[in-house]
Design brief:
Blueprint: E1 3-8, E2 11-16, E3 19-26, E4 29-31, E5 46-48, E6 52-60, E7 74-90, E8 93-94, E9 100-101, E10 104-119, H1 125-138, E11 143-146, E12 151-165, E13 169-178, H2 218-227, H3 229-236
Antiparallel strand pairs: 1-2, 1-11, 3-6, 4-5, 6-13, 7-10, 8-9, 11-12, 12-13
Amino acid sequence: MASILYEVVGEFRSVVFDATLKENHSNSGTATEHTVEVGANISDHFRKDRDRLTLEVQVTNHPIVSPGVDGANGAVAPLSLQGSEFEITTGATVSESGNVEPAKRQTTTRTAQANVLQFSQPFDRVAAVRQQLKDLQNNATILTVITSVDQYNQMILEDIQTLREGRDSVDISLEFAELRTAEGQTVDLPEPVETRGERARNRGAQATVEAPPEQASVAAQLLERFTGLGLLHKAGG
């Protein structure tokens, strides 16, 4: 029998079904279409798909556990069961005159006791469970689904379909899909070398730095070395 567990404001709640009619478990993945080099890490070429689960369940207004809806509570208590029985006290007779006396029958009542599950007041569990499932879907509540085969965590209820609805029972199809989450991390950024906008700040008057003397060209250096004209030019300039 499948059940759903979830948490609301620190309080754990559950949805228990009367019967599980069918379970469909889907655990698949996708492999790369490219050639994988021998010796490479195979896990790098395989992507695990989300787990999916489909349940067909039945909910009734005659549960075998306490309904937990409409303020009704259930407990096992003695219940008196009365039944009527008929006993034949005398058989039919025929007198000498030919008159027929019919058989006489006596009715007795017999009482028996049994311990059965009894509820404190009437309730409509079918309507309550259907509304509970709709709320879980609309609020995208993260669920834990327990089945006869496996337990699934981090599930979302994607689809609800009513397969058959009677006066006191309903068959429902539920489709769940795994919800993958990731945790973010906050890190401290390093201090900048220069504060943004620092260059545009007016720093006031600055000391003048004298530019280095102009370097003479290679041709002028050779002319000065061999003829001395450069020196004469400097002396006469």
